[in-house]
Amino acid sequence: MLLVALVNGTGVGMPQSRVGQSDQRSFSDRGRNMARERNENLAALLGEAGWSRAQAASAYNRVALENNLRDHAKIGRSHISMWVGGTRPSGPAPLILSQALSRRLKRVVTPQEIGLAVPTSPAQGAPEWRVDPLIALTDLGSSDLDADRRRLLTSAVYSTTALALPNEAWWATMAQPPAEPGVGKQRVGRGDVATVQELTVAFSRMDQSRGGGHGRKALVQYLHSDVRDFLHGRFPDERVRREMFSAAAELSYLSGWMAFDNGEHAVAQKYFVLAVKLAARADDAPLSGHILRAMAHQAIDLGFAREGLHLAEASVHGERYAAATPRERALLGVIHARGLAANGKKQSAAKALLRAEDDLAAASVGIREPNRTFFFGEAALAHETACTLRDLGDRPRAIREFRHSVRTRGAAFRRTHAVTLGYLGATQIAGGSVEEACATWGSVLDAMEDGIYSGRARQAVVDMRHLLSPYRRRGIPAVTALDTRATAYLTQVD
C-alpha cells in the first residue's frame, strides 16, 4: 500500500530530511538534552513481530523504497535501537515504520500505537495528507467512537492548513495498485461492494430527511468495523479493489457531510480528507471531485472564501469534471459559482451558473447517475443559485430562487428545506421585509420541532434571533411571537 505524498519537495510542503546525511542528527535532535524514556510500545511490537533490530530496519527500508522515499531508506539497526531507547524520529519515519509493522502483523498499526505520534507542527505541512488512509481510518474511527477521545476530536479547530491540496504527483502515486495484496483473511467481492453502497444510500436519505445529527454514530461504527475489514481483505481483481475503496470513500464523505451539517467542522474536515485519500487510492476522479466540492462548500460557509474557491476549482479540474455525469457536473459547477461569487468574481460566477443549469438540463432519465447525487435536482440548484446571487448582492433574484427552491423541493428533503427557509428569511429581513421574514422563519421552527437534528438548521434559528434584535422593541406582534418561540426552542435543545 502507498504511504504518503512524495516527500522531497512535492505536494504537501514537507521539509526534506536526508537520512543518508548526518543520520544521528536527523533522527535524534528531537531527543537531545531531554531525559529519554524507553519506548515500551515499540519494543513490544517488535517482539510481537519477531524482528531483530536489523530485520526491522530492513523492513522499514523496503517500505520507504516502495513509496519513493529513497532519502529515508537508509536506516540501520542503530536507528531502531535509538527509537526503542526513546529518541523520536523526524519526518515520515513513524508512518513508514507503522506500515512495515502493519504488514508483518497483518493488522493496522498506527504511529500512536508504536509511541511515535505523527508530528503536527505547522512547519511539517498538513499531516492529514501524509497519513496512509487505512491508518487514518482506524485512528479517526477509534477517536470518534470513544467518548473521551471524541471530546478531544470535537474540540479541535477547523484547519486551513489541511485545505492546501497535494500536487499531481501525489494523486498519481496514490492511484497506483498496491505492491502487496490485502493482508486480511476475508475475501471481498462485488456483493460486499454493493452492500456498502446500499447502506450509504440509506444513511444519506436519512441525513436528507432528519439531518446530520441523527444516525451518524451508527454510520461511523459500520465504517470503522465492517468497511475497514473489507479494505484489508483479499480482492479477486483490481477492479473490485478500486470499487471497494470508492464505496468506502463515499461512506467516509457522508460521515463528513453529516458532521458538517451538525456543526462539527473539525470532525467533518478529517472525514473529508480521509474520503479524498480513499477516492484517490481508487483512482476515482469524479468521486474525488464530489468530495472536494463538499470541502469547498464547508470552507465558503465558514468564511474562507479564497480557500473555498481553490477547492472548488480543483473539483472541476480535468477528469473530476469531464468524467462526471451531467447531474454531478451541475453540482460541482454551482459550488464553483458560489466560490467565484464569494471572491467577487461576478461575471465568472454568472457563467458558472449558466453552465450548471445546462449540465442539470442534460441529466436525462436514460443516463445512469451515481447514487450520491440523488438529492441534486431543480430545488437544490435553485438553493445554491440563490446563495450565489445573495453573495453577489442581487437580493431580489436571490429571494426568487430561494422561493423557487422551497416550492419545488420534495417532502423527503426536510433538512435542506429548513436551511433554505432560514436563508430566505435572512435575505428578506435584509431587504426590510420584517413580517414576511417572520412568516418564513415560522416555517423553519415548524420543521425543526418536527424532529430535525441539524446544526445548520439550528444555526438558522440562532441567526433569526440575532437579526430580529433591532425590531424587538418596536411592538411588532409577529416579531414578539417568533422571538418567544425561537427562544423556547433553543432552550429545549441546548
Commentary on this structure:
- The chain has 494 residues and is mainly α.
- The protein has four domains: 1-126, no CATH class; 132-281, no CATH class; 284-412, Alpha Horseshoe (Serine Threonine Protein Phosphatase 5, Tetratricopeptide repeat), CATH 1.25.40; 414-494, no CATH class.
- The chain has helices at residues 23-28, 40-49, 53-66, 77-85, 93-105, 133-145, 147-154, 168-174, 190-210, 216-231, 238-261, 265-281, 285-301, 305-315, 319-322, 326-342, 346-361, 378-391, 395-408, 414-430, 434-448, 455-468, 477-493.
- Helix 20 (414-430) runs antiparallel to helix 21.
- The radius of gyration is 25 Å and the shape is elongated.
- The protein starts with 22 loop residues before the first helix and ends with a helix.
- The model is unreliable at 1-34 and 119-125 (pLDDT under 50).
Short description:
The protein contains 23 helices and no strands.
Protein topology:
Layout: H1 23-28, H2 40-49, H3 53-66, H4 77-85, H5 93-105, H6 133-145, H7 147-154, H8 168-174, H9 190-210, H10 216-231, H11 238-261, H12 265-281, H13 285-301, H14 305-315, H15 319-322, H16 326-342, H17 346-361, H18 378-391, H19 395-408, H20 414-430, H21 434-448, H22 455-468, H23 477-493
Helix pairs in contact: 3-4, 3-5, 6-7, 6-10, 6-12, 9-10, 9-11, 10-11, 11-12, 11-13, 12-13, 13-14, 13-16, 14-16, 16-17, 16-18, 17-18, 18-19, 19-20, 20-21, 20-22, 21-22, 21-23, 22-23
Give the uncertain stretches in residue-range form: 1-34, 119-125
| Overall outline | elongated
State the secondary-structure class. mainly alpha
Tell me the count of domains: 4
**Distance from first to last alpha carbon:** 45 Å
- Nearest-integer average pLDDT: 86
Radius of gyration: 25 Å
**Helicity level:** 55-70%
How many strands appear in the DSSP assignment? 0
Order of helices and strands: HHHHHHHHHHHHHHHHHHHHHHH
- Major sheet summary line: none
- How much strand? under 5%
Task: Figure out the total of helices.
Answer: 23
